[in-house]
Amino acid sequence: MVGWLQDNGLLLGLAALDGLAYAALVFMVAVGLNLVFGVLRIVNVAHGSLFAIGAYTAASLGLFFASQGLPPLAGYFALVLAAALVGALLGPLIERFLLRRIYGHEEVLQLLVTFALFMILEDVQKLVWGVQPVSQDLPMTYLGTIDVPFGDDVIPFTKYQLFVLPGIAVATLVGLALFLRRTLAGRMIVAVTADKEAATAMGIDATRIMLLTFTAGAALAALGGALASPTTSLVPGVGAQTIVLSFAVVATAGLGQIEGAALTSLMMGLGRSVAVYFAPEFEVVVPYLIMVAVLLVRPQGLFGVLETRRV
Amino acid sequence: MTQELSRRALMGATAGSLLLAGGNAGAQQKPSELRVGITTFLSGPASVFGVPSKQMAELLFEQVNAQGGIGGIPVKPYFVDEAPGTEHLVGEYRRLVQNEGVHVMFASISSGSCLACTPLSDEMRKTTLLWDCGTQRIFEEGKHPFAFRTQGFGTPEVLAPLLYLLKHKPDFKSIAVINQDYAWGRDSWELWKTAMDVLKPGVRVVAEMFPRLGATDYSTEVTRLLASRPEVILTTSWGGDLVTLVRQAAERRLFERSTFVMPVAEASLQLLGKTVPAGHVIGARGDHWNNHPKPKDPAKLAKFVDGYRARYNEYPIYPCHHMAQAISALQAGYAKAIAAKGGGWPNDQELANAFRGLTFDTPTSTITLREDGQGLEDQIVGLSSFNDKFPFAVPKDMIMFPAAMVSTPVGMKSVDWLKTLTPAILAQTPAPI
After folding, report:
1. Which B residues, 210 through 239, put their C-beta within 8 Å of a C-beta on chain A?
2. What is the CA radius of gyration of chain A?
3. Domains and CATH numbers, chain A
4. Which domains are seen in chain B, by residue range?
5. What distance in Å separates the CA atoms of residue B80 and residue B54, rounded to the nearest whole number?
6. What is the mean pLDDT of each run of 10 residues along chain A (311 residues)?
7. What ipTM was predicted for this assembly?
């Protein structure tokens, strides 16, 4: 084992850098899903669509800004603006007119409704952006690359993936943790998450909290998509792939657990990257193997807490 | 009484059916419209192929109908989405034939779809033109008297780029592959590896990677390719997958370290603009480059390209050419069948008979359908380059590989045939055009 590590230490180092960037993107999407589930108690299948629409919107805005001759930095503004727009427009719309009607209903119905919304939004994407791949990589290319030493060689990494993505993910994690624990609005969210009835009895407007939480979750999904957009090309179906992995992260982390989502994303990102180097056949399955392994030991997830049955 | 009538009716129906089945050569009533069922991807990642080809079909059928249709009747297409999967597609195929009464089927983009539809063509005795799928298994693992592929197939589409590489970069010693994890990705690597092992034994394979179909991030794979430094990187990926891979690879200077071979690149080059650097091997699953250096009829190719651009504001990609080939075959097949019947309208069997050995024009050349139903399509491979005419990479130093040179002979399986090749085949490679 020690010998293997000595032989492959450099490759493991590269895998760690790749895994970090991948984990950052996964976390951005999963954390929104986790937050929404914690408060609304709805598994939102349409979360993947919000990711995709955020990505498409960011790419379109970036292309528009570039066509207007704005400086490359405007591309970064496009990423944030896209997330804000999608969150502010679609979030309240979906929560107010769709989800609010199915709170407290059977989980099967909730799944079907959000799945139907997902399908509708998939078609909306095709109507608006077509089916050909859409790309806007200026935010990534603008920063250029950095050469990481690899023995006698160097491996170029994009600064965007090495610094920007993990940086924003860490900032989101810290910001969310502080917001939830140190601010009144955050504590109200935590209270509704823990016990909606008790929180309502204490005078918290749970309906408003749920609206705000879903809007924030939608914005986080859109931000995840927007941040991913410079690194990839957007095609129909991109939302579906994202949501499946996000569900795995949420289930492994424990429903409603922000820090758990971060740790799980990191585990899955690193696991996947190591697999690409040493067992590429397992690349796809590694995140789910991690999920199964965790749930076998802790069915409530890494950070989840067992709920006592209420009578 | 009721029972007696039923028995008589049954006997009558049976006798009628037998007469129809056995003596089908009699008068066949000319329909009021020619109904064509077309399976293609209208959703999902492969809709990058399916939607442009649907657009091309609509454009061409409009033109055909404006000129009087086929055999004097208008053509009406029925489009079906392949994306929901083969079970759904099989149901749709049956529905189109039995309920809508389509006269001919066009199937499909996915090889899995074609493998599901060809047995149906046998069962329902319905002429089916395999208009885009590439799997070599169709005609190598069975006989399908009502199925005809109006373009090339996987083996020549892989062998031609390999031969080109062996001409262009004969001394390469290491290779890596990064293909999509599904039938085409795996099959194309098997074909490439089999041929490479006999034509240039000893090449070291430093990485075999098969990321899932529709992957949105290749940064880890790119890092591994950068670290393993293969001289050649093969990828038969397509669509958004290829666009993402190329963008990430280009940004991290992977194209400076390795020569890429991309047999399916043509469909993505417009989207990639200047991202694909010059000097890498690119293919088009046939000879249908929009800058084809020697088309059979230059005016026809120009009209084809310009017509599509005028309508859709983009260049036609290879699935558009494949759709045009199927429609051209449809016209030629009906013309031949009607002529063979002295002007009468052909039944299903007569129509299928007409397709065997049929030669038809394409926007760039002509294709002949072999006795097994497989089309013989030349392959043009070249090096990515830039000129003033196109805002994206197009091939230069093109070599046109004759279909007969790179296609598995009738009755052989591709892997077995590739093992029989010798380096002497390189001497047969034509000069660049």
Report:
1. 210-212, 214-217, 219-221, 223-224, 226-227, 229, 239
2. 20
3. 13-297 (1.10.3470)
4. 34-152+296-369 (3.40.50.2300), 155-284+378-427 (3.40.50.2300)
5. 10
6. 78 93 92 88 91 96 94 93 96 94 90 94 90 86 94 93 95 94 91 87 92 94 95 85 87 85 94 92 91 92 68 48
7. 0.87
